[in-house]
Amino acid sequence: MDLSGIADDRGHGDVHRLFFALWPDDSVRQRIADAASSLRQTHSPGGRWLGPHRYHLTLQFLGDFAQLPPTLAARACDAAAALRSPAFTLPLDRAGSFRNRSIPWWLGCQDAPQALTGLWDALGLALARAGVKVHSGGKALQPHVTVLRDADRGLPSTPIAPLHWPVTEFVLIHSQLGRRNAYDIVQRWSLMDQ
């Protein structure tokens, strides 16, 4: 396991965020960008559109830190390595928004595939067994890819032309917010062929 992408930025005021995610390949990333562009043209919302390089679907959020705890990433990686979950296709067939301060718009699915909820559950349990706290707030999985932040209004759940995302892996991401504002993939785990 190579944790060299996790820098020590003590004293620089950066926030280090660690989370497990589904990470789209370039083809899926482009189709998500096309769907986001269509939403932008149709609805003309104000807000901050995310660049396609930031698209992901969060599985388990491990927290924000001024400095990452030294063993957190290693324990999280060990927990993930023990999982055996099947690959699946994720249909992104809806757009909508959440009702929180930043009013994020997203692409999601009406019905989450059982393999996705199984992966989410299994990863949460594996992390708990490894003593790694997750910050889901006791909420159920709401699979979504955020495309817009700080929208000037909400978007009711709206059907979109289905976008089929073949999910063959999941990743651990270290997001550094501050000077770099970058996502670094710490490690990848393949899902099993069915």
From TrEMBL:
Transmembrane segments: none
Active site: 56 (proton donor), 144 (proton acceptor)
Highest taxon above the source species: Bacteria
Broad EC category: hydrolase
Record SUPFAM superfamilies: LigT-like
Keyword entries, A-Z: Hydrolase
Gene3D superfamilies per UniProt: Cyclic phosphodiesterase
A Pfam family it matches: LigT_PEase
Motif range (HXTX 1): 56-59
Keyword Hydrolase annotated: yes
Residue stretches making up the Phosphoesterase HXTX domain: 23-102
Enzyme Commission number(s) from the entry: 3.1.4.58
Reactions this protein catalyses: a 3'-end 2',3'-cyclophospho-ribonucleotide-RNA + H2O = a 3'-end 2'-phospho-ribonucleotide-RNA + H(+)
Residue interval(s) of motif HXTX 2: 144-147
Keyword Phosphoprotein: no
Family: Belongs to the 2H phosphoesterase superfamily. ThpR family.
Function: Hydrolyzes RNA 2',3'-cyclic phosphodiester to an RNA 2'-phosphomonoester.
Protein's name according to its UniProt entry: RNA 2',3'-cyclic phosphodiesterase
Organism: Lysobacter cavernae
Encoding gene per record: thpR
